[in-house]
Design brief:
CATH topology: Metallo-beta-lactamase, Chain A
Low-confidence stretches: none
Structural class: alpha/beta
Order of helices and strands: HEEEEHEHEHEEEEEHEHHH
Bound molecules: zinc ion
Distance between the termini: 83 Å
CATH architecture: 4-Layer Sandwich
Length: 310
């Protein structure tokens, strides 16, 4: 009898859990006056995290709220909006996609009434790759994506510097992580939303990267007058570690791949190269290194064959 009661209880608990609405539980972190970030986990996409592996943020200006990136799913975008409404009664007036990657854009639907803005190449990229990104996300995080559809930006970013409700926002277009990466520097607060141009304590991803261009852009970024940097992935950074660390990783990655390509190593041998001790605290270092080899190595092998060939 006891066992039967226990079995029924277990069944009821399981049913209650299944019926419970899925939630990310997004909590905004205040990083500067008027400025909030939803800090994601430094993990890979998984059904457990629902794709909440990314940083998104918002600035509360006197003229309304500026949203920077919308997260991995419709549900995430909706939760963002609810969380923003708890901070301010002001409406969302601007929504920006920093670049085309799926963890940054699939909450767009939740802001469809406001309209999304991005660089022209980002809009083209979302239109070209968005469908494949969505399929991939459904495979990797499952039910969290329910109802999510591609909703590319409808507006090109109008001007490089725009003042919104007393915040002078500099829109800085760079390249390296992808062919169009947008950073937002708020001169009113000194916060730099660095997009995926900077990672912190999480290995950078490179599916659309040009490491040499990325390193050059990081050197320019280091000269910007910011006091807090919000990386695309990793904790908000007041110590200027994110730029240094991202640069260090990319320069090592680029040099390592060039060396092993010159040596004529196979791709699997390249993937097995040791990772320096100084990157030991970086989440997903081996996983991202292996992924980077698979993205970047074929090109380098070709280049090195051309140099040595007839
Ligand atoms: Zn990215
Ligand atoms: Zn990202």
């Amino acid at each position: 009898m006891k066992r039967l009661v226990l079995a029924v209880l277990l069944l009821l608990t399981a049913a209650a859990q299944a019926a419970e609405p899925r939630r990310y539980g997004l909590e905004p972190e205040k990083v500067a006056p008027d400025t909030y970030v939803f800090v994601g986990k430094t993990e890979n996409f998984s059904p457990a995290n629902g794709g909440n592996i990314v940083n998104t943020g918002f600035i509360v200006t006197k003229a309304g709220v500026v949203v920077i990136d919308t997260g991995p799913s419709l549900l995430y975008g909706r939760e963002m909006r609810q969380a923003i409404a708890k901070v301010t009664p002001l409406p969302v007036v601007r929504v920006i996609n920093t670049h085309l990657h799926p963890d940054h854009i699939f909450g767009n639907q939740a802001f469809a009434d406001v309209g999304i803005e991005a660089l022209p190449a980002t809009i083209r990229g979302e239109e070209a790759h968005g469908k494949a990104f969505a399929d991939n996300m459904y495979r990797m995080v499952g039910a969290w994506m329910q109802g999510t559809e591609l909703h590319p930006p409808s507006r090109q970013l109008p001007r490089a510097v725009q003042t919104v409700g007393g915040h002078r926002l500099e829109m800085i277009a760079v390249q390296g992580h992808t062919d169009a990466d947008l950073m937002v520097l708020d001169h009113a607060t000194g916060v730099l939303f660095a997009s995926d141009m900077a990672f912190l304590d999480r290995a950078p991803t490179t599916p659309h990267a040009e490491p040499a261009a990325w390193v050059a852009a990081l050197d320019e970024m280091a000269k910007l007058p910011f006091t807090v940097l919000i990386p695309g992935h990793g904790r908000p950074d007041k110590e200027r570690r994110a730029i240094r660390q991202t640069r260090d990783w990319l320069a090592w990655l680029d040099a390592t791949l060039r060396r092993v390509a010159e040596d004529g190593l196979e791709m699997t041998e390249a993937m097995a190269q040791p990772i320096p001790e100084r990157f030991a605290g970086m989440a997903l270092a081996r996983e991202e290194f292996v992924r980077s080899v698979s993205h970047l190595y074929p090109r380098l092998e070709q280049a090195s064959l051309r140099r040595t060939g007839p």
